[in-house]
Amino acid sequence: MIKYIAFDFDGTLVHSQVAFISVYNQLAEKYRLIKMEPANIPYLRTLSITDRCRYLNLPLYKMPFFTAQFLKQYQKCIPDINLIEGMQPVLTQLNALNYQLAIISTNTESNIRQFLQHNQLGIITDVFCSTNLFGKDKIIRKFLKAYNLKPAEVLYIGDEHRDIIACRNNQVKVAWVSWG
Fold first, then answer.
1. Distance between CA atoms of 143 and 14, rounded to whole angstroms?
2. Confidence of residue 180 (pLDDT cuts 50, 70, 90)
3. Could you tell me the pLDDT band of residue 123, with boundaries at 50, 70 and 90?
4. What is the 3-state secondary structure (H, E, C) of the chain?
5. What is the arrangement of strands in the sheet containing 124-129, beginning at the earlier edge strand?
6. Burial 39-61 (b: 16+ CB within 10 A, else e)
7. Do residues 119 and 83 touch, judged by C-beta distance below 8 A?
8. Closest Cα to residue 137, out of 167, 103, 172, 105?
9. Half-sphere exposure (Cβ direction) of 6: Cα atoms closer than 13 Å
10. Which residues contact 14 (CB under 8 A, 6 or more apart)?
11. Of 25, 1, 5, which is closest to residue 143 (Cα–Cα)?
12. What is the pLDDT, as a whole number, of residue 81?
């Protein structure tokens, strides 16, 4: 029986694509990377993280440094980021049905908590994060252990192939949204 419904943050719960592209492109200009264009996003979404980095000319060894700078600048965009249309009533209904709601993300906990506070979403109390883009399966495992949950007690909702892989690696049920 499912007890927790855990959501990915960017692209699943919130529409952050405009902010994401803006922050990325500011850094791309600074570091002479290939800029993102909205028209390229569908193609980039089909690529693995490694292939995305290759396409954008971002060496993998620079990812930790780049990610830290990206997330720091992204924080300034939080007031302009909105919940995906229709998600507020879904969250309210899930809460009314006594599901525990959580966010498991590769964004930072401070960014997510700032968004939750700004949007008065106190019904989501559990936030698990890692800025390691390759470690979502570890965050899910940490979440299961922290709440002594069996994989069958969690449904994860995400928008990327890596979300599906991470859930499969932990035997957690997964739902995919097409709007991310």
1. 21
2. low
3. very high
4. CCCEEEECCECCCEECHHHHHHHHHHHHHHHCCCCCCHHHHHHHHCCCHHHHHHHHCCCHHHHHHHHHHHHHHHHHHHHHCEECCCHHHHHHHHHHCCCEEEEEECCCHHHHHHHHHHCCCCCEEEEEECCCCCCHHHHHHHHHHHCCCCHHHEEEEECCHHHHHHHHHCCCEEEECCCC
5. 124-129, 100-105, 4-7, 154-158, 173-176
6. eeeeeeeeeeeeebbeebebeee
7. yes
8. 167
9. 30
10. 81, 82, 83, 84, 115
11. 5
12. 95
Tokens encoding 66: 């780049």
Are residues 132 and 150 in contact, defined by beta-carbon separation less than 8 angstroms?
no
